[in-house]
Write the structure tokens for this entry.
Amino acid sequence: MEEGLRRAAELLSSSRQAVALTGAGVSTESGIPDFRSPGGLWSRYDPSEFATLSSFLRDPVRFYQLASEFLSVFTAEPNEGHRALAELEEMGLLKAVITQNVDGLHQAAGSKRVVELHGNLRECRCLSCGTVLPIEVLAEKLVQRGEIPPRCGCGGLLKPNVILFGESLPAEALREAFELVSRCDLLLVAGSSLMVSPANFLPPMAVEAGAELLIVNEEPTPMDAFASVVLRGKTGKVLPELVRRVKEIR
Ligand code: NAD
């Protein structure tokens, strides 16, 4: 780890166009469960039964019962890992954070340029009339009034503005992510199993374009063999340590 941290700090401080790609792992230390860690949501639920657009449309009641696992998202606070990434941006060392997360914690930590590949939990949308409402409207119906599934005034189903399996990713976010990665000279992946497409196309794309790849994750990922440095550990510990080392060099 020591040698890896030293090398990672050197690469980061000499980079000019570094970009981060984050996943659910950066938010587990804020109390939000990820999908694929042991004990994560995937070990308890079948994704095809829960997180797909067709399952939502088929059985919205079940969707909302399982979604109650995610209520911690609304009270969660950013952790040291989120703050470290915001600090790297503030220092001029990180151009942007591309995230698969929907929890808004990068912005809460101070990151300015955040590309949300899988939508967000700030808003919800009526699947019948298309009205977009703040998520608080949905949360109030769900939690205070026990309205499952929550419905719009027009009677249509309300769906959080998060991307479920089977839905297309927001085109603009995807375009921005591909552009950032095609130009970056270093991609810092943090807290992602790199099992979800198309986010997991980004690291090979960066490597093919000649960028350095740094991976900070508790468990192995399919891209470890292609990384310049792999740091195995918690993002809430490793990322602040990386920032500390970068400051020592600069
Ligand atoms: P994932 O669950 O597939 O993988 C998470 C990875 O993070 C695992 O490899 C795990 O070992 C690692 N990890 C967990 N805690 C860590 C920590 N503290 N430090 C370092 N590593 C840690 O997550 P993914 O790759 O983001 O893909 C899953 C999908 O889940 C994404 O589409 C994402 O949108 C969605 N999701 C988002 C949230 C959220 O917004 N917080 C939470 C759960 C799932």
Remarks:
- The longest strand covers residues 119-126.
- The chain is about 40% helix and 15% strand.
